[in-house]
Amino acid sequence: MFKVIDESFVCENCGKMVPKLGYSCRNHCPYCLYSKHVDIDPGDRAQICHGLLEPIGIETTKKGYVIIFKCQKCGEIRKNKVAEDDDMDKVIELSAKH
Questions:
Q1: CB 49 within 8 A of CB 73
Q2: How many CA atoms lie less than 13 Å away from 14 in the CB half-sphere?
Q3: What is the pLDDT, as a whole number, of residue 57?
Q4: CA separation for the pair 92, 87 (Å, rounded)
Q5: Residue 1: its pLDDT value, please?
Q6: What is the Cα–Cα distance from 86 to 73, expressed in whole angstroms?
Q7: What tens digit of pLDDT does each residue of 23-70 get?
Q8: Which of 11-15, 18-22, 83-87 comes out lowest in average pLDDT?
Q9: Chain-centre distance of CA 31, in angstroms?
Q10: Which of 2, 4, 25, 58 could form an SS bridge with 95, CB 3.0 to 4.6 Å?
């Protein structure tokens, strides 16, 4: 189940205003790449953890680059595609760590 939610938000990690993505659902901050643990299934907002999802690595798939996140509160690992407007310097830094 994928529920489409594309909304702007203020990043809880870097404090910047993050605009809507426009072509899909905004999942993470394009500036610092952090996300928030709010979904069980994409867009459902059913997760009660609400911890920050720290970007810890990158993996390459047939569909492109995917950011690997680890929740700072509960430790769960989540993944999401790199967005067109993500800071590619940050993406490159992550790929060097993994």
A1: yes
A2: 12
A3: 95
A4: 9
A5: 64
A6: 24
A7: 777 889 999 999 999 988 877 888 999 999 999 999 999 989 999 999
A8: 18-22
A9: 11
A10: 58
Do 78 and 53 meet the contact criterion of CB atoms below 8 Å apart?
yes
For the sheet with 52-61, list strands across it: 35-36, 52-61, 64-71, 77-81
pLDDT at res. 46: 86
Q: ∠ at Cα 13 (56, 60), nearest 5°?
A: 25
Phi and psi at residue 78, to the nearest 5°: -130, 160
Residues 6+ apart with CB under 8 A from 73: 37, 49, 50, 51, 52
